Amino acid sequence: MNTYGRALLIGLLNTLQVAVIGVVLATILGALIGIGRLSSNWLLGKLTVLYVEALRDIPLLPRQLLFWYTNLQGLPGQRQAWHLGSIAFLSNQGIKLPELDWRRARI
Questions:
Q1: pLDDT tens digits for 11-57?
Q2: Sign of dihedral through CA atoms 77, 79, 80, 84?
Q3: pTM
Q4: DSSP code string of 25-75
Q5: Which DSSP helix (H) or strand (E) runs through 105?
Q6: Packing angle of the helix pair 42-57, 3-37 (nearest 10 deg)
Q7: What's the N-to-C CA distance of the chain in angstroms?
Q8: Cα(79)–Cα(93) distance, rounded to whole angstroms?
Q9: Do 59 and 46 form a contact (C-beta atoms < 8 A)?
């Protein structure tokens, strides 16, 4: 099998794997939230109603922006960056990888 066909097959399999996992987890979360809304427990019912209404009222793009912004702000600063393998670093500034300089050095 040529490399393009192999890459396409691997991409398709990865997409299917993520889709199946997403459908299963979304079904479980939806069932739990639905049961929580029907619960006779006052606090649980109000929390699930608040969760559902908040997600319905916020459009997808601002919700995604808020999610990623708050997650990136929780990362450490540059001096305390997390090591990803031996050469990559993750901080609140992003992922830093070494840059290859293909130009010849001038003497």
A1: 999 999 999 999 999 999 999 999 999 999 999 999 999 999 988 88
A2: positive
A3: 0.55
A4: HHHHHHHHHHHHHT-S-HHHHHHHHHHHHHHHHS-HHHHHHHHHHHHHHTS
A5: none
A6: 140
A7: 47
A8: 11
A9: no
